[in-house]
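ok so i was messing around last nite and threw this chain in just to see what happens. nothing serious, just curious
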Amino acid sequence: MDLTLNGHVANEDGIASALADFAIGMTLDRVPAEVRQRAKYLLLDAVGLAYATKNYPFTKVTLAAMQSLGSGSSTVIGHGRILQPRDAMVMNGLLVHGLDFDDTHLRGVIHPTASLFPCTLGMAEVHGASGEALLAAYIAGVEVGSRLTSAGNGGFHETGFNPTGVIGTFASAVAASRLAGLTPRQAWMAQGIALSMASGSQAFLQGGAWSKRIQPGWAASAGMTAATLAKQGFIGPKAPYEGRFGLFSSYLGEVRALVDLSLATSGLGEVWQTMEVAVKPIPACVFAHAATDAAMILHEPWRRGSDEPAMGAIDAVKRVRVKVPREVVKTVCEPVEAKRRPANAYEAQFSIPYLVATGLLKGKFTLQELEDDAVSDPQVLALAAKVDYEIDPDSTFPRHHTGEVIVEFADERRLEHREDVNRGGADRPLSNDEVAEKYLSNVNGTLSPARADQVLDAVLALDQRPLRDLLTLLAEPV
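result:
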């Protein structure tokens, strides 16, 4: 089945050519000031997460693996200049994405910064580019990646692919092309080459696999590789998105009818998707944020309404109904029994029963709620066993990731709360000040207050100060 541009032809040579023209031709002075500013706060969020992830076992294992492949002089955040460029991108991607607390473009359901920051940081370091050039390439990559994954209309998750790994490769290819000084035609070719490198299975959803954590960095590394090959004249497919063997037909299979290719180029340079990127307020899958918030809001009325001990209150619960968008069920609701008893922190982050039960019992969900003792808490698991999901008939997904929690007690009492607009999304965003607060919270315990402020200032002055200022700070081991 051939796909068409659905009447929207931004470039007679196709989508990849149109995206290349935009990515290479975009100038930072034509990007609205609020977009440039928000982009820097998105980068700040990523930097904070990279420091927060530093001491986890998966970080140490991955670093050892990357070091076994050889040494180099590229920056690994908080670890020094120790790896080859592509290996440093893999490592930095894992640092940003490892806790699944990083930003998300909600319509596309992609974590754009987790691949684009490692890619643009590494490319800028290799090519001696300025902070201004890094920022421009990052914004171009966000605009391209968010549109490509939006065109899939949720189809990637439906077929078992993670858009962050798949589409992150194409976004990184165009960002890398810009920093490497490619022509629009070469950047077009880089996307064709990237088609053979794009990957990202969702098999991680069961069994506690670490593979999702490495997908953004792999996409960054693949993007650099594709751009470098294109610069040297390597020839790839000219239509990587359209056609019977293009991205959408090959990856979406039976659900390719969902695709709207007009979204891949619509509004380029006019409507800025960077402003649509959501900063996570909760360290869990964004699909579950609204339901988790609803549960946390119900914590206080539940606590006030019961004089019984916690387990008594749980025993009094008949069931907990959670209404979620149909499109998120495979990721955060099924298989139900496995979701009710997550085996580890990563499974817990993708479990509506665990997240809702924790929110109801504790009134919060932070990184502490992902520690081993929290995930195995018998009270939380007892309540999670009573959590069922339903399809939300009033969902406005993907614009909003709605969530509603209804607690039904055996004595006919009932508590309920609905979140129509998820916190952190484009229609209810965290302010720049709140993003800065999140950054400071995430680096607390890893960086001294003075050092944390230095890094914050360097990121927010990225386009005004030499990039070496930021690189020096990020490279220093902590």
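not much to say yet. The beta strands are 74-76, 80-83, 104-105, 277-278, 317-324, 387-391, 403-409, 414-419.
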